[in-house]
Amino acid sequence: MVISGFVSRHGLWFRVGLITFVAMFIVFGAMLLATGKLDYQSIGYPGIWLVSLIGAGSMILPVPGLAVICVGASPSVGLHPAMIGIVAGSGETLGEMTGYLAGLSGNTLLQKHRMYPKVRNWLIDRGAIVLFVLSVIPNPIFDLIGLAAGGIRYPLKKFLITIFIGKSIKSGGIAYACYFGVSAIQNLADNVF
After folding, report:
1. Are 93 and 65 in contact (CB under 8 A)?
2. What are phi and psi of 159, to 5 degrees?
3. How far apart are CA 159 and CA 181, in angstroms?
4. Which of 28, 73, 172, 190 is the most exposed place for a label (fewest CB within 10 A)?
């Protein structure tokens, strides 16, 4: 209640501040990736969070978020798959704010995409279910989902909670699959060779 009151009174400044915050992290992370200072095997939870944020927040820059989750879950790295899911889910959730805020502004090029009206109608009809299902499944249209959610003024709190849960489940599932997959391959290699 306090947050919604603050946002309604200072909506423009809140949005500008949030966009600036997310943009700073995206630029910082992109610089680390471009200069090679982001080593996937030694980044730990903060690195997974940062790459997940950049991957979700960047609609143009291809960032290998799923690969970082997989590398982090490798038994040789030693990170816990469930924690990876939560960390990556929180980074992706914050990154998805770029699409939501762009949709909120109403001036986006992706609104002209042929799928946008369909996605918008899905959100109007079934909001949280659509957000949850599409955030659990790795898919390339989630930027449209964020744009549409912002465009219809979907409640920010519900948007963030729903996609955090969905993206944490998705990232945790990928982390566990990679952990057990790499372990099985290592066991097979140890037994064969």
Report:
1. no
2. -60, -50
3. 32
4. 190
User: Looking at the chain, which runs of residues are DSSP E strands?
Assistant: none
Each residue's pLDDT tens digit, 71-106: 888 887 888 999 999 999 999 999 888 888 888 877
Give the pLDDT confidence of 134-189 residue by residue, as tens digits: 999 987 778 788 888 888 888 999 999 999 999 999 999 999 998 998 778 877 77
User: Is this structure's pTM higher than 0.70?
Assistant: yes
CA distance linking residue 180 with residue 169, whole number of Å: 16
Tokens standing for residue 92: 């992706």
Give dist(CA 40, CA 61) in Å, integer.
17
Closest to 63 in 3D by CA, of 43, 86, 80: 43
Q: Residues 7, 156: contact at Cβ < 8 Å?
A: yes
Tokens for 154, please give them. Answer: 């979907």
The pLDDT of residue 111 is 66
**Stretch 32-40: mean pLDDT, rounded?**
62
Residue with tokens 């997989």: 70
- DSSP output for 86-127: HHHHHHHHHHTHHHHHHHHHT--GGGGSTTHHHHHHHHHHHH
How far is residue 97 from each of residues 58, 102, 124, 181, 188, measured CA to CA in Å?
10, 8, 19, 32, 42
